[in-house]
Amino acid sequence: MRAAVLHEIGQDKLEVLDDVETTGFGPGRVRIRVRATGLCHSDLSAMAGVLPQPAPFVPGHEGAGEILEVGEGVGHLKPGDRVVVCWLPACGVCPACKRGQTQLCLAGFMNAGTPNFKRPGGSPSDVFGFAGTGTFAEEVVVDAGCAVPIPDDVPFDIAALIGCGVTTGLGAALNTADVEAGSSVAVIGCGGVGISAIQGARLKGAAEIVAVDPVASRRDSALKFGATRAVSPDELPAAKQEVTAGEGFDYVFEVVGRSATARTAYENTRRGGTLVVVGAGALDDYLQLSMFELFFDEKRILPSMYGGGDVLRSYERTIALWRAGRVDLESLITHRVPLADINEALDQMRQGTALRTCIEI
To answer: What are the phi and psi torsion angles at 302 (to 5°)?
Structure first.
């Protein structure tokens, strides 16, 4: 089958190969025919080594498709079922799951160290899947818990977005921050996840939503999705003054994953306000805060892992909101490319011209 493979960490191009095979099918596992997958910035981060990931590997973790085969002991799925690929499944028995914090379950991370693919003639022959999945491939084998059934009326491209970016952004506003109606919000970084956070803040009734991004096309898009104004990073101080009289925003979402933008987000959060860290950053990129400002400012700093809530409930909620026309998912997909042109999608992400590129497989 075909799959896009990164041979070594640090390379900026993927090679689309046709000699890749899935591995690991058996009891408790399912084989999925991938139909659509989104390109998330985390895929680029893993390719660059910002996020830890063994190589060679197949990127992609935001996918949807249909079940081809189920292993022994899998009773809730059958061939033909439409599913979203969940890269962070809940095991249900670990301490985090028992506390109701299923987004902190580590079962999915354990899968990342086990090869999902192989190349019989390759060296090395083992090929990993990013985040234990690897959806830049025609097929993938995952634990049954990673395949979440979806209704037949949800298109594969829409379902793929729900698998990561939309769930993360919406959840940051709805679950983690629980944005208060009438509040002021700033979102730093307005790709697919940032736009979803904007939609979440709008749903919660935020009075002012300021989108911050260096790319003009993304600022224009943010206004269409519910931002009340959109500014470049250089214009943020003026927006802070105009919207909050200089006090700072009630909520600031950092959706870039860098200490520099997290520091900017902190400085633009009002005293007693809430900074939500959504972007996935590097292990060695440290955010510096003084002990005095932590005490004196009393700002809440809330990391948001995968939207900060129960993943299955978040999927269901997003589908319900989409059906009701309360969130716009179709317009998030600004580009479409076939798997053969995957490197074109990577360039679109790096240049900031795409909110989400759908890779049709």
So the answer is: -120, 105
**What residues in the chain have per-residue pLDDT under 70?**
none
Cα separation, 145 vs 88, in Å, equals: 9
pLDDT tens readout for residues 24-43? 999 999 999 999 999 999 99
List pLDDT tens digits, range 205-235: 999 999 999 999 999 999 999 999 999 999 9
For the chain, the distance separating the N- and C-terminal CA atoms, rounded to the nearest angstrom, is 11
- Counting Cα atoms < 13 Å in the Cβ hemisphere of 108 gives 24
Nearby residues of 22 by Cβ (< 8 Å), 6 or more positions away: 1, 31, 116, 117, 137, 139, 140, 141
Instruction: Report residue 190 as tokens.
Output: 């307005």
Closest CA to 90 of 116, 71, 110, 72: 110
- Backbone φ, ψ for residue 270 (5° rounding): -70, 160
**CA pair distance 141, 70, nearest whole angstrom:** 10
Rounded to a whole number of angstroms, the CA Rg of the chain reads: 20
Q: Hey, what amino acid is at 282?
A: A
Model's pTM, two decimal places?
0.94
Phi-psi group of 166: left, alpha or beta (phi > 0 → left; psi -120 to 50 → alpha; rest → beta): alpha
270/274 Cα distance (integer angstroms): 8
Quick one: pLDDT at residue 319? 97
State which amino acid sits at residue 14.
L
> What b/e string do you get for 204-222 counting C-beta neighbours within 10 Å, with b at 16 or more?
bebebbbbbbeeeebbebb
Q: What pLDDT, on a 0 to 100 scale, did the predictor assign at position 360?
A: 93
Distance CA 322, CA 329 (A): 7
Instruction: Return the ∠ at Cα 87 (arms to 86 and 93), rounded to 5°.
Output: 85
